[in-house]
UniProtKB/TrEMBL annotation:
Active site per database record: 108 (proton acceptor)
Keywords from the UniProt entry: Isomerase
Gene responsible for this protein: rpiA
E.C. code: 5.3.1.6
Pfam family, one: Rib_5-P_isom_A
Subunit structure: Homodimer.
GO biological process, one term: D-ribose metabolic process
Descriptive protein name: Ribose-5-phosphate isomerase A
Single GO MF descriptor: ribose-5-phosphate isomerase activity
InterPro entries reported in the protein's UniProt record: NagB/RpiA_transferase-like, Ribose5P_isomerase_typA_subgr, Ribose5P_isomerase_type_A
Amino acid sequence: MLTQEELKQKVARAALDYVLPLLAPDVVIGIGTGSTANLFIDGLAAHKHLFKGAVSSSERSSARLTALGIHVFDLNQIDRVPVYIDGADEIDAGLNMIKGGGGALTREKIVASVADRFVCIVDESKLVPCLGKFPLPIEVIPMAIAEVSRRVARFGGTAALRQGFTTDNGCQILDVSGLRIESPAELEAQINNIAGVVTCGLFAIAGADVALLSTQQGVQTLYSPRS
Ligand SMILES: O=C(CO)[C@H](O)[C@H](O)COP(=O)(O)O
């Protein structure tokens, strides 16, 4: 029986196998945030001579990439990102996700939106029939915390301020529990439309294109029904 850590290592290796054929001297790849993404970064470092560099979804990942000798570009300098590799907190069969457990959801959404392909790397504990057991992170402009909390209560959720945490964008995170997420894309649009919300951690309007799912039986590849 593989541990969750071993499952993460296997999916990080599978992500490396996925990315290696895409690497070329002019290629900049997108890299996410979290323990699974970290394992991918560590494996990628051995191949740094094969590609130009990376754009990253957090200061933490940028620091790790830089320390391993992978050049990190400002996204404003880059016009093409062939692939974005990142984990998730929950993913469903339609490759809709909840992300932001590490608080990097906004930059994750930005880098993912630039990338041609979002490849989500998860262990099987993250695959759920319906999103919402994992509290939904929402990045909020600090002055709007009380009002956004009241607004999300209308969707059936209870918001808790993530204590002692400030995002890379100088904002705060509300973690919303108790949501029943039947239409993830619809809820994503509704929450993102609340004044003061930077973005919510639902990735459903544009979910992942591919998921590499690490199971006890091996790594499975799932494709988005949208693609
Ligand atoms: O969205 C994220 C960070 O904001 C991560 O992708 C998510 O929290 C999964 O992390 P891990 O790979 O450590 O389980």
